[in-house]
Amino acid sequence: MAEIPPFTGFGPDAMPFLTGLRADNTKAYFDANRKIYDEQIALPMKSLVLSLGEQIQSQIRPGVEYEPRIGKSMFRINRDLRFSKDKTPYNTHLDAVFWEGEGTKTSPGFILRITPETTLVGTGVYGLKDQRLQRFRDAVVDDSTGAELESIVATTRKAVRGASLSEPSRKTVPKGWPKDHPRANFLKHDGIHMSAEAKTPASITSAKFVPWLVNRMAKFEPLESWLVANT
Q1: Nearest to 52 by CA among 131, 127, 115, 114
Q2: Tell me: the pLDDT tens digits for 48-98?
Q3: Do 211 and 55 contact (CB within 8 A), yes or no?
Q4: What is the reported pTM?
C-alpha cells in the first residue's frame, strides 16, 4: 500500500465535481470525471483522515481512533440502494468519523460532513442498545451526570453558532422511566448527536483546513467525553 501524503487540500475541481454530481447523479457523469474524483477527492480524503486524526489525538482526545479506509473512518461514495426509494447511485457529500471505543458504528466519536456549501462537525453515538442504552438512561436521570449533560449541551450551544441536537429516537419516554422527569427529552434518545454547520471555508483547498476543523471539533469535546464515560 502506497504511503498516504499529508493533507494539503482538496483539488480545485473537487467541490465543483460534487456540485456537478448533485445535478447529474449518474454513472455516466461519474465515469467521465473519475480522474477528478480519484486524484482530487479520494486521495485527499485519505490524507485528511490521517492529518485530522493525528491532530484530534494530540489536541483534543488522545483515545480517538481513525483509519483512512472504507468501513473505518471513511464512507463509500456509492449509496446503498437496497432499501431506499431514492435510486440515485452516489452520495454528493464526504463523510468521516473518528471514534473512541470498540467500533466505528457503536462508539462515540467526532463526525464530519463536507459539501461544497457547508461543512458539518460534531459528536455523537448511534443507536444504543441493551446495557449501553441502560447506562445512558441511568446517567440522564442521575442528579450529577444528568445535570452535567444538560450543562454541556447548553454551553456548547452558546459556544458554537447553530449547534443543535439530533431529533429524539422516540415520540414518548420509554416504558419504565419517569415521563415527568426534568430531562425526559434526553430519555427519548436511543442515540444522540450534536453538530453544527458552517460555510465551507476557502481553506478546504489547503492544509489550513485541518486546524479550522480541529478548532471547531474541540468545542464538542465535553459532550464526546461525557458519551464515552456514560454509554
Answers
A1: 114
A2: 999 999 999 999 999 999 999 999 999 999 998 888 888 999 999 999 999
A3: yes
A4: 0.94
Contacts of 101 (CB under 8 A, 6+ apart): 107, 108, 109, 228
Spatial distance between the Cα atoms of 27 and 135, rounded to a whole number of angstroms: 45
**Is beta strand 94-99 parallel, antiparallel or unpaired with respect to 164-165?**
unpaired
**Residue 129 near residue 191, CB atoms below 8 Å:** no
Of 157, 221, 231, 218, nearest to 192 by C-alpha is 231
Burial of 144 (0-12, 13-18, 19+ CB in 10 A): exposed
Q: 8: which residues sit within 8 A by CB, 6+ positions away?
A: 44, 47, 206, 207
